Amino acid sequence: MNESDEPVRADKLSRHLADRLTPPPWATDIVVYVHGWRTSGTAAISSALRLMGLMERQRAGRSPLYPRLDRRYAPWVVVVCWPSSSRLSFAGYETIREQAHAMGARGKGYAPHVIGHLLGYLHSERGDPAADTLRTRNGQYLHLVGHSFGGRLLCEAVTWAAEAGRGGTLGWRVPTHPSRPFTVDSLTVFQMAAPVTAFDSLFKYLRPGPRGHMSPVGGPLVFTYSRYDRAAGLWHLIGEKVPGIGHSGMRLSAAADTLAPNDVWRTALLRADTPYPRTSLDHVFVNIDASWRYRHNRLNRSGAHSDIYHPESAHLLLSLADHSRPDEA
After folding, report:
1. Measured between alpha carbons, how far is 288 from 306 in angstroms, rounded to an integer?
2. Which DSSP string do the residues of 35-58 spell out, in sequence order?
3. pLDDT tens digits, residue range 153-162?
4. Which candidate in 45, 114, 265, 287 could, as Cys together with 283 as Cys, close a disulfide (CB 3.0–4.6 Å)?
């Protein structure tokens, strides 16, 4: 949609993005943020700015934790908004779950198509950080951040956008396939509203296959979870017969003919003054147990589902940005 709420034709989408989004030359990192359940456009922008503010304060107060960001770190944020309003109830959660699925369903929904175009456009505009441009304005890292159902839409978009192009790796050892149209340097989802088994079915193309890793994500896919998340826990269990990733983390089945052995790591959300070793994040999939910080809120029926605005969340995002850079950067 454009500013007048008129639909944008598919063949005009690239031009529409080019007319409105130009990564500024001062930016070192591009952050694409997709909000979750019960969030208006205004609230989505506020949420993204709140996270960025936490990151700015965390880095200012604890800069030695991020040595590769010491020279310069200037993020530029793109907020993707989608209709997610409903009542704060199990019925409301179910409604938005079905809506998010319909928006992302292959062959029916257009959200992956639009977000995929956005990512491809940003990738082409940012320059290649791996091509001797790490110290110039043209080398910009691309990070995806989602919350709740927003993470589901991001994963569907990354799955959809797998047609042509070229990828590459930077600080991470996770390989990407050269046929991908862009390379994302990290993907983080706070309290994801998708089944714990989603990467066996919905997002199976984002896990390694027998011929190697085919995903355009050139770094880790990181998922926070908390046992106090009632929306992704009990409500998701009732609706989909399994808990959500935001409650229990993601898991993978054993290797099969089309699915190779997988790299899944579990660790805890670290306190804001404790460094993340690269080895704790340098995996294809990383489950982050945030139960000690994302806690139950008796005044909120969804529990810890939206309790993500803490210095520890900023610390995680900054650590991913830091480790995306090679040691010599």
Report:
1. 15
2. --SS--HHHHHHHHHHHHHHHHHH
3. 888 877 765 4
4. 265
Report residue 276 as tokens. 């993340």
Contact 196, 181 (CB under 8 A): no
d(CA 305, CA 37): 10
End-to-end alpha carbon distance in the chain: 39
Beta strand segments in the chain, E: 29-34, 75-80, 141-147, 186-190, 221-225, 264-268, 285-289
Record the tokens describing residue 106, joined without a space.
């292959």
Beta strand pairing call for 75-80 and 186-190: unpaired
Identify residue 154 by its one-letter amino acid code.
Answer: L
**Higher pLDDT pick, 88 / 131:** 88
Question: Can you tell me whether residue 158 is helix, strand or coil?
Answer: helix
Beta bridge partners of 267: 288
pLDDT by residue (tens digit) across 154-200?
888 777 654 333 333 334 455 554 444 456 889 999 999 889 999 88
Q: Which two tokens stand for residue 9?
A: 């034709």
* Number of residues assigned to the chain: 329
Residue that wins the pLDDT comparison between 286 and 36: 286
pLDDT tens digits, 19-40: 677 778 788 898 999 998 777 8
* Two structure tokens written together for 165: 């192009």
CB within 8 Å of 108: residues ≥ 6 apart: 102
Contacts of 28 (CB under 8 A, 6+ apart): 72, 73, 74, 75, 139, 140, 141
Asked if residue 4 has pLDDT above 70, the reply is no
The residue with tokens 């997002």 is 203
In the chain, DSSP finds a helix count (H) and a strand count (E) of: 9, 7
